[in-house]
C-alpha cells in the first residue's frame, strides 16, 4: 500500500508511524485509518518488530475525526459503510503501541491515543473530546475508554463541556503515563518502545493482553486469567533464559520462544 497520510519507518525493533496530514492538523479521515491499519498489520506480522510508536506533528497529534468528511454523512450510509469499524481494529493490535502526543489531541485523536497502550505526552499536549460542540458525542470508544482512564467525574466534565485539558492535568488524572519536554518526546517514546521490544515478544504480548483483561472483567476472573497465562510462561524458553541470566548475572538473550 502506498501511504499518503502517514509516514512509516522502522527504527531497530520499533515501528514508527507519523500521522501526516498537516493541512488538516492530522484529522483522521477514512484513508488515514486504512493506512494506519495496514501499517500496524505489517508490524504485527513482522517478527523483527516488537513495539510501535504512533506520533503526530509538534502542533497536533490529531485534531479528531475529519469533520469535513463526516459532515454530510447520513445514518444509512454510515451504517452500511461500517463507519468507524476500522478504528476498532487499532485497539486489537496484539503488540504494544505507544502514543507520543504533542499539541492537539482531540476527539477521534484522543480516542486513537487511548486505543494505544499508553500515552507519553509533551508539555504542549492538549486533550479534549469536543464532539458535543459539533452536535454529536464521541463515537470511537471515547465515552467508554475515558472514564476507565480518568474516572467518571472528570470524563463527564470533559465529554459534556468539550473543554480542553492541558498536559499537566492529563498526567495528574492518569490519562498520560509520562510527561516530557517537547524536544524529548520522540526520543523518550522510542526509548520506551525499544526497551519493550528487547523483551520476549510472546511474554510482552501476553502481559498486554492480561492488563487489558482488567478493563473488561471482574477482579476474580481477571486474576484467574492472569494465573493461567503466568503458569503457561514456564513452558517458554524465554522464561528459562530470563531467570538463568539473572542468576548468572548477565543480560538475557530472549529468542521469542
Ligand atoms: N476535521 C477536519 N479538518 C480539521 C479538523 C478536523 N477535526 N481540525 C482542524 N481541521 C482543519 C481546519 O478546518 C483548517 O483547515 P482550513 O485551513 O482548510 O480551514 C486546518 O485544519 C487548521 O485548523 P484551524 O485553522 O482551525 O487551526 P487553529 O489553530 O485555529 O485551531 C483547533 C485548532 C482548535 C484544533 C481547531 O482546528 C478545531 O477545533 N478543530 C476541530 C476539533 C474537533 O472538533 N474535533 C472532533 C472531531 S469529531 C470526532 O472526532 C468524532 C469521533 O469521535 C470519531
Describe this structure in words.
- Strands 1-2-3-5-7-10 form a six-stranded mixed sheet, with helices on both faces. A four-stranded mixed sheet has the order 4-6-8-9.
- 37% of the residues are buried.
- The chain is of the alpha/beta class and 257 residues long.
- The protein has twelve helices and ten strands.
- The chain is globular and about 60 Å long.
- Residues 24-25, 27, 63-68, 104, 106-108, 111, 130-131, 134, 138-140, 142 line the site of acetoacetyl-coenzyme A.
Total beta strands: 10
How many H/I helical runs? 12
Instruction: Catalogue the unreliable spans.
Output: none
Main sheet characteristics: 6 strands, mixed
Helix share bin:
40-55%
Structural class: alpha/beta
Radius of gyration: 19 Å
**What fraction of residues sit in β-strands?**
15-25%
Ligands (ions, cofactors included): acetoacetyl-coenzyme A
Average pLDDT, all residues: 97
List its traits:
alpha/beta; binds acetoacetyl-coenzyme A; 257 residues; 12 helices; 6-stranded mixed beta sheet; 4-stranded mixed beta sheet; 47% helix; globular; 16% strand
Short description:
The chain is α/β, with parallel strands linked by helices. It has 12 helices and 10 strands.
Describe the protein's topology:
Layout lengths: L5 E6 L2 E6 L10 H15 L6 E5 L4 E3 L4 H4 L4 H6 L4 H7 L5 E5 L2 E3 L1 H8 L2 E5 L3 E3 L13 H9 L1 H10 L3 E2 H6 L5 E3 L4 H14 L2 H16 L2 H14 L4 H11 L10
Parallel strand pairs: 2-3, 3-5, 4-6, 5-7, 6-8, 7-10
Antiparallel strand pairs: 1-2, 8-9
Helix pairs in contact: 1-4, 5-6, 6-7, 10-11
The structure holds acetoacetyl-coenzyme A (CAA).
The site of acetoacetyl-coenzyme A has 21 residues, from α2, β6 and α5.
